[in-house]
Amino acid sequence: MSQHSDSTTAPYPSGNLQPQTVPGKTLGIVSVILPFVGFGLIGLILGIVAKSQSKKAGAKNTPAVVGIVLGAISVVVGIIVTIAIIVGIGAVAQQCQQLGPGTHQIGASTITCGS
User: Fold this and answer.
1) 98 FRET partner, CA 20 to 30 A, in 27, 48, 69, 80?
2) Mind telling me which residue stretches traverse the membrane in this protein (predicted)?
3) Parent domain of 70
4) Reduced to 3 states, what is the DSSP secondary structure of residue 30?
């Protein structure tokens, strides 16, 4: 029986067989989670950092891209909500200035204005 070497079979790699980790992948995963717990800006920044680390290593980092998108959406929504709150407080303050101190019934709403 002769030994036959099949040219289509790749030789077994030698050395350490641990899978290579993608640089920035852990940061990318963290950047996906942070917008859901109220830290959209930090998630956006970490996503950008993770993407940069992966790009330097020539690796693809999908969690970082998702983190960037979710972080950006979270920041935009946060800005819109903040503006809406400021406008609402301004409207109530203006109405209190016109009505004076006390409790006032306007439609279905009750507004309490300070002294």
Assistant:
1) 80
2) 27-50, 62-89
3) 25-113
4) helix
